[in-house]
Amino acid sequence: MTDPWPIHGSRTVPWKSSGRPPREDREFSEVTVSLPPTIAECWYDPGRETIVALEEAAVAVASLDVTAGTRMAAISGFLLRSEAVSSSKIEHVNANRDDYARAMIGLKASDNARSMVAAADAVQGMIDAAGNTGEIRLADLLAAHHTLMKDDPVDGPHAGKLRDVQNWIGGSDYSPRGAIHVPPPPELVPDLMDDLMLFCNRRDVPIMAQAAIAHAQFESIRPFTDGNGRVGRALIGAVSRRRGLTRNTVTPIASAMVADVDRYFRLVNNYRTGDADAFVLYLARCALHAASAARESVSALDGLPALWFELARPRKGSADEKIIPWLLERPVFEANSAAHIAGVAESSVYAALDRLTTAGVISKVGQSKRHQAWAATEVLDEVDRLNQRLAHIAKAA
């Protein structure tokens, strides 16, 4: 039997809707807000099944981290994109492959595609900061949130700032009437986040358990007006990096979560009733599944250069031959980048790009003559294949 984890309290406070809400919201006069406990010094005692899962997950995550080997930049980039794309999908932010590819190199793209790229930058920034400083710092979470939300047409002004308004999940657009979860009032957020940072920087909690609890606590506080889910899931990777479980990559845990979003949300809600162990067990299994599926992706990516050479049969010393090995690291690019790698003038590289396109190695993702771009689509499509493998695992579990 595990020791109980503290449950969330509650408080009923007055509510007044603003703007021009419907009658039901105008009549809504009070709301019960959640009061997360402080956890900086709480002791977590995992159950037997969870202990085993935590050990297996840690081994799998560490093993994946060293698998990248000589293709470190390519593999770490792929895993980062997988995590950011999946974390965005959980929040119903999605874009097609070519739209996302254009956003990756700054070409005209949809708001969703640009948001997915910003999510990858935010994840990378948080994880790098944790590795470089050896700490999880509130300043780095704020910086990640700024990166994620600075271009958002609604929440851009709040980017990088703790919220100073009440937020909620579900319910009405005008009030928390019927909300699934109403986080603590804004005046409590700074102290709760300071407490969470203390918990995140402990070393007497199993790594994946610390990451899971930190994430669930963060989602309960919901310190930002928007973007909480994506920053909160980035916190999982940041904790792993701070503790040295990973050194080079991010485990695409969100890819496992997106396979069964309802279960993920249900277990986060159960955490608020004191059931931390179930969420820790869930996250450990997600990490184990994600690492296993990602290893298949790493193997598939490793085989691509040989396949591309077979398809293109480039002449020795040609621009084509020099571009192919580079595609894993830079799967989306413009002509000037390809020319630099090939060591030729930009005007001369188009013939090589045409040959690689005809061979099926790359394809155009920007149709504008002025802003042309190409992508090694097999690299980008592997993100979807990874998610499909994890969805199959989730159904079988």
Describe the structure concisely:
The chain is built from 16 helices and seven strands. With 397 residues, it is mainly α. Strand 3 (169-170) and strand 4 form a beta hairpin.
Biggest sheet strand order reads 5-7-6
Number of beta-strand segments: 7
How much beta, percentage-wise? 5-15%
Query: What's the helix count?
Result: 16
Overall SS class: mainly alpha
**For the terminal residues, how far apart are their CA atoms?**
24 Å
CATH topology of the largest domain: Fic-like fold
The unreliable regions are none
What's the number of structural domains? 2
> What would you report as the Rg, rounded to the nearest angstrom?
23 Å
* CATH homologous superfamily annotation of the largest domain: Fido-like domain
Biggest β-sheet strands, sense, barrel: 3 strands, antiparallel
Q: Any idea what the CATH architecture of the largest domain is?
A: Orthogonal Bundle
Helix percentage: 55-70%
Categorize the overall geometry.
Answer: globular
> What is the C-level CATH assignment of the largest domain?
Mainly Alpha
Would you tell me the overall average pLDDT? 94
Helix-strand sequence? EHEHHHHHEEHHHHHHHEHHEEH
